[in-house]
Amino acid sequence: MLRDDRGQAEPRRTIPRMPIPRVTSRVALVVVVALVAGCGSNGPDPADPAPTGSPTGDVPAHRAWAYEYVSDVGPVGNQGLDIAAVSRREAWAIAALRDTGGSGPGMQMLRFDGTRWQEYDLSSDLRDALGGGTLSAPTLHAGAGDAWLFARVGHGPGTSPSPLAARFDGTHWLAVPPPEEGDMTRVAVLGPSDVWALGNPKRRTAWHWDGRSWTGTRLPLEAQAITSDTSGGDLRVAGNVPDPEADKADEPDPDHPKPRALRLAAARWDGRQWREERMPDVAAADARFTGCRTPVQTLVARGADDVWAMGIEYGPYTGTRYTPPGHRPCALHWDGTRWSKSSDLPAGILDAKRVRGENGKVSRIARPPYVTGITGKVTEPDRKQSFGLAEIAHVPGTGEAWGVGTAELGASGEANFSRAVIVRYRP
């Protein structure tokens, strides 16, 4: 396995979001782990199923997630980190898995070949690029039949990690020169020689790969999201309008920023530069506004006059913070002329628990069965296990989706366990 420079897997930053299909994080909405040699299996061990009905009865269940891979059981540290679907028969995932010897978790690349998930030896392909270093903070991205990886490579104590970029050429992962900025958080793969990437929003730069090198272009906003599929329209980014005065006020205590009006905007690439498009403002003082109180996190282009920008709806401002009532998704819509607030959402998977149909009806997605615990069986403590997804990826050309995450049990003493899991949704 690939290990980070501390012997631990770097935890994925948890951000409330609607994980839209990455062929946007990105049809419809949707924002792992393969068969590790000696370290996992295809599908779950036999276990009693979890309840599939809604505990409150207010939202009916619509299908359920099904396990396609469950890693070996371990006390702590096993978790699925990211996943990207290239096609019906190809998908990639990466997980933090603990060695059977009990050492710290390391990074493991995993591949779906159309039949099952299997371990993939990434270190062999990228031996020269890794230079004996350790992989951390990996993200996977797919689009137009291509798969890309962005990560950091640690070189030991006292050194700074170096950025890594690589693409799969159909046979092997090949390292490519990374953008100057380093960490890329949002990526649009439009073709082998047409990739756009966003780094730190404050730098207001979009990086473009033309097959030979990266070129930076100046953005008129602090971009948080990018359309990763432009088949239905133009390439766009969305984020916040810069607010230098508010930034200056936060300098004394940057970890506790003061409330500010959230000014949202989008920008469209016209082939030469980014053209700003203003979105409806969010006033911090307007407690009645039930719109996006967080930055736009996902963009989905379904057509030139049908573009959706999604964020998370938060409750009224209380004086110290916004209170999120269940992290409900919210949306803004581009109709070809302007952006406006929308009470509707595109059809698709809203999150790990809910799916919205074309008729607008929201149904619940049932969780998969319980996985077996430390004893190899589903004991009474094991029925308290949690199931969570770190990422959901739409499968191109289908209504299906992959999910990657963790099944784990905590606060139960010696019964505690964690398993990296991959699940599949079929409507």
Textual characterization of the structure:
By secondary structure, this protein is mainly β. Helices cover 4% and strands 41% of the residues. It has three helices and 29 strands. The chain has helices at residues 122-125, 127-130, 244-250; strands spanning 40-41, 61-64, 66-71, 79-87, 90-98, 105-112, 117-120, 134-143, 146-154, 162-168, 173-176, 186-191, 194-198, 205-209, 214-218, 222-226, 236-240, 264-269, 274-278, 298-303, 306-313, 328-334, 339-342, 348-349, 354-356, 362-366, 386-394, 401-409, 417-425. The strands form seven sheets. The chain has a five-stranded antiparallel β-sheet with strand order 1-3-29-28-27, with no helix packed on it. Strand 8 (134-143) and strand 9 (146-154) form a beta hairpin. The radius of gyration is 21 Å and the shape is globular. The chain starts with 39 loop residues before the first strand and ends with a strand. The relative contact order is 0.19. Residues 2-39, 44-58, 284-291 and 315-326 have low confidence and may be disordered.
What attributes does this structure have?
single chain, mainly beta, 3 helices, 29 strands, 4% helix, 41% strand, disordered N terminus
Segments where pLDDT lies below 50 for 5+ residues? 2-39, 44-58, 284-291, 315-326
Write down the overall mean pLDDT: 79
How far is the first residue's CA from the last residue's CA? 34 Å
Share in β-strands:
35-45%
Main β-sheet, spatial strand arrangement: 1-3-29-28-27
Profile the largest sheet: 5 strands, antiparallel
Write down how many β-strands occur, each being a DSSP E stretch of 2 or more residues: 29
Helix vs. strand class: mainly beta
**Number of helices, counting only DSSP H or I runs of 4 residues or more:** 3
Report helical residue fraction. under 10%
Q: Name the shape in a single word.
A: globular
Radius of gyration: 21 Å
